[in-house]
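Hello forum,

I keep getting stuck at the same step: I have a sequence, I want structure tokens, and every attempt I make locally crashes halfway through. Rather than fight my setup again tonight, could one of you with a working pipeline run this one for me? It's a single chain of 352 residues.
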Amino acid sequence: MVNYGYREVLPAGEYFWGWDPAVFLRGMVVYHESDLCSNPEQIMEYIRECMDLNLDQVSGIHPNAVASGHALAFLAGKTGEEKYRQKADSVFEDYLNIVRVPNGGISHRDVTLELWDDTVYMVGIFLLEMYRLTGDIRYAEEFMEQLLAHHEKLADPQWGLWYHGWDADTVFYDDRCSMPHWADPVTGQSPEFWGRGNGWVMMAVADALQTFPESYGQYGVLEDMLNELVHRLPELQDEETGHWCQLPIYPEEEGNWIESSSTAMYAYAMSIGIRLDLLDPEIYRPVVDRAYTGLKEHSLKDMGEGTMTATNICEGTCIGDKAYYYHRDVIEGIPYGLGSFIMFGVEYDKLD
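Reply #2:
Ran it on my machine without issues. Output:
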């Protein structure tokens, strides 16, 4: 899947400054740093080329632009080249100027005040890589500020999962993607817990837990949040396929369907939690094993010549009601889907 991804799906010459390629590139970074990587020189050259061809496009003016900055910080640390550090610093400067809602959360859009759960991952992979690069606590604090601000508005205490979005003013803004008037007029929250949206959150929390030292003052907050997010997942997993659904809390409902990118993301986060002794392996290891087997059996497609791609992926999705999510297109071979599979595969290998 790695080779198919960077040679066929997203060659370096087609990389662009956006969230979708950023997630695939994150997968490539994770793979490069793992024991599974058999061609580190080629993977590093791919990462470098993706960034070098986009140095004039570097920006951090909204969360989805910030995401690709993780590779700049990674390269700054690996190569010591000042051009990557300077560009990474410019992404952070842009990030600091993104419009925020009253509780300090980064607005997902710059033309209206809304919090989306996607944001914590898109800015998180950058902020966490900057912390790894520098050891500067301000990047950890920025990450935690965003995580907690979004948690305040999006987390549901019963399920532990997060609503997809929250509207700060409930004034309708037509983004030509979301369902009109999606925000509850009282709570401002969107009506559903979207599968991949929660995957973004779980991966961000898990990445922070394996980045920050246990001595970090808010490490316990992160541990509690991971447990909160995953504690209902075992009962919601489809036993036959090992997947979770597009809307995870309705696994038996007609119209719902298995979604592979969120499945890989949940299993990725749980794998890290098990490895760090933060999740009970007797409960969660069988869940992760079922997800791994299920993804192999139900969401991989042979592309020939020993290559595979990912299937059963929800297309890029904004915010809506139940019918909106059920009617999103199911696609395959998209960069963010491949990235999530690669990251889970790396973490699953570490369990053994």
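The chain has a mean pLDDT of 98. If your local run keeps crashing, start a new thread with the error log.
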